Amino acid sequence: MDNVxxxxxxxxLQRFAIGIAEIDLQHRRLFELLGEMQGWSGTDLERVASLxxxxxxxxxxxxxxxxxxxxxxxxxxxxxxxxxxxxxxFVDTVDILRHRLLKEKRCxxxxxxxxxxxxxxxxxxxxxxxxYFLARGVEPTAFAPEANAIGEExxxxxxAAT
Length: 162
Hints:
Blueprint: H1 10-16, H2 21-38, H3 44-74, H4 80-103, H5 108-135
């Protein structure tokens, strides 16, 4: 399998851009973490490193899913339940594959699944909510300040600063 990081040039990343900056930043971070996982395969040390990266990816995916799902609920998106079911399928499958990784030395199935799921989910499922969100007033650049470089964590603002 080719390395996702090697393929994350700006034109290719544009393929995965859905037009809502915060979500696009989060998708990019998920791909970056996946790319880090692809660098590991074989030794016990690499397996431990893969588990650390997998844990980071899983934690970040939960944050990303929470953002999407919260927006869907706030905007009364009609396909929220189906979208949440897709997220649950991802989490459940990654958990099964993670347990397999604990027993084996390689994570090829895991990396292949995550890559395939992310590409399919963004292209097939996430794109479905964009027009709905925009029609309900979501500002495409509001969630990620322009100064926030791609790949950085989104800036957090305290309630006192507003």
